[in-house]
Design brief:
By secondary structure, the chain is of the alpha/beta class. The chain has helices at about 15-25, 45-50, 70-90, 100-110, 135-145, 155-160, 175-180, 190-195, 215-230, 245-255, 270-280, 290-295, 310-315, 325-340, 340-345, 360-370, and strands at about 5-10, 30-40, 60, 90-95, 115-120, 145-150, 170, 205-210, 235-240, 260-265, 280-285, 300-305, 320. Strands 3-2-1-4-5-6-7 form a seven-stranded parallel beta sheet, sandwiched between helices. α1 packs across α7, α9 packs across α10 (about 245-255) and α9 packs parallel to α14 (about 325-340). The chain binds uridine-diphosphate-N-acetylglucosamine and uridine-5'-diphosphate.
Length: about 375
């Protein structure tokens, strides 16, 4: 029997971190030829992940331009995907999450009548413009997909409510699979500065911020809140690997740079980032991925957004929504910095997002779909 040609498509840092372990799992199956097409919606930040996971794509659309718009990303992906699909002839295309690459990858697969598997399916805020454009991207991909790999039972329920009842699997999130390969107790950082941070002696707070809906006023509030926290607490060190987006860099330069006890550094390779998270005191972020990783590592998270599509760790008590208003963010951060009990209540490891076997379940589900294996058990957290 011919091998199944399963093509994973991704383009940004978080998609790469969550898809590299899956591309490798698929490659380990004798029934599958695992193909990898990157759009390079992110160039440097994607390449960094490919290096960490030692993965060489079969196809690279190389679309990134500085300050790219949603329309340029989508149209360049669509045109490039035509060629990739014609050349690589996949039996199924896998897309991940909710980026413009995800949407364009799924739409392109549909135009070529290739079935689509959606990894990290079923996340919702039910607010069309927040996160923007991700909430709409994932809804549009849900309309196109044939197989849905939901990280949690809650994600599956969201899809069922929308009338999607076939092709649903609860797998856990592949990010937990990735964490299993990167976090080590005896890890030595290649970014020298990180080896010398006063972990334990001071409260090292890991920060990231990049979301489009936070551009402008919300990002200004976030930066000023971070500045205030650093200025007012001598026992705190903020470590902030700044996203390469020029919009984000401008906000950081205008409102945060120069504050005491703030370490502004370039984006970190995924393994460095994960090990820094494992050692820090707490996390402040608007990132989706960090909301999943930090709880698994027992680190409290303050989410710099008004909503989240990841309510599981909020329910488990390790993640809180801090919003995007300066005073609110400062108040919530100070509670965790100054109140030992409040900190202890949030600092416990929970794993609602997976047991590290998501990739195995997804590969099994794909083989089952094509009549070549047993249906996998759902992951029940
Ligand atoms: C994208 C995703 C977002 C995801 C985020 C992860 C969309 C619409 N947004 O947002 O869902 O959370 O990635 O980080 O798909 N840049 C570089 N080098 C890089 C990466 C980015 O220079 O390696 C700069 C470029 O100027 C680029 C800009 O950052 O134009 C913005 O990148 P883009 O992918 O458009 O948006 P993100 O905010 O990164
Ligand atoms: N990350 C990284 N280096 C950094 C910042 C983040 O490797 O300097 C990782 C982080 O650990 C997580 C992923 O990138 O796995 C999250 O990506 P991002 O915040 O860019 O996007 P989101 O998850 O919000 O879509």
């Amino acid at each position: 029997m011919d091998k199944l040609r399963i093509m994973s498509v991704f383009g940004t840092r978080p998609e790469a971190i969550k898809m590299c372990p899956l591309v490798k799992e698929l490659a380990s199956r004798p029934e599958i030829e695992s193909l990898c097409c990157v759009t390079a919606q992110h160039r440097q930040m994607l390449d960094s992940v490919l290096e960490v996971f030692d993965l060489k794509p079969d196809w690279d659309l190389d679309i990134m331009t500085p300050r790219q718009t949603l329309s340029t990303i989508t149209s360049k992906c669509l045109l490039g995907m035509d060629e990739a699909i014609d050349a690589l002839k996949p039996d199924m295309i896998l897309v991940h999450g909710d980026t413009s690459t995800t949407f364009a990858g799924a739409l392109s697969a549909f135009y070529h009548q290739v079935p689509v598997g959606h990894v990290e399916a079923g996340l919702r805020t039910y607010d069309k413009y927040s996160p923007f454009p991700e909430e709409m991207n994932r809804k549009l991909v849900s309309a196109i997909a044939d197989l849905y790999f939901c990280p949690t039972v809650h994600n599956r329920e969201n899809l069922v409510k929308e009338g999607i009842t076939n092709g649903l699997f609860v797998t856990g999130n592949t990010v937990i699979d990735a964490l299993k390969t990167t976090v080590r107790k005896d890890y030595t950082f290649t970014t020298e500065e990180l080896n010398h941070l006063p972990y334990g002696e001071k409260k090292v707070i890991l920060v990231t911020c990049h979301r489009r809906e936070n551009y402008g006023e919300p990002m200004k509030h976030i930066m000023l809140a971070l500045r205030q926290i650093a200025e007012q607490h001598e026992d705190v060190e903020l470590v902030y690997p700044v996203h390469l987006s020029p919009v984000v860099r401008e906000a950081v330069d205008t409102y945060l740079r120069g504050a005491p006890r703030v370490h502004l550094i370039d984006p970190l390779p995924a393994d460095e980032m994960h090990n820094l998270m494992a050692r820090c005191y707490m996390v402040m972020t608007d990132s989706g991925g960090l909301q999943e990783e930090a709880p698994a590592l027992g680190k409290p998270v303050l989410v710099l957004r008004r909503e989240t599509e990841r309510p599981e760790a909020v329910a488990a008590g390790t993640v809180k929504l801090a919003g995007v208003v300066q005073d609110d963010i400062v108040t919530m951060a100070e509670r965790l910095i100054c109140d030992r009990n409040a900190y202890a209540r949030m600092a416990h490891a929970v794993n609602p997002y997976g047991d590290g076997n998501a990739c195995r379940r997804i590969a099994d589900a794909i083989l089952w779909h094509f009549g070549r294996g047993e249906k996998p058990e759902d992951y029940l957290s």
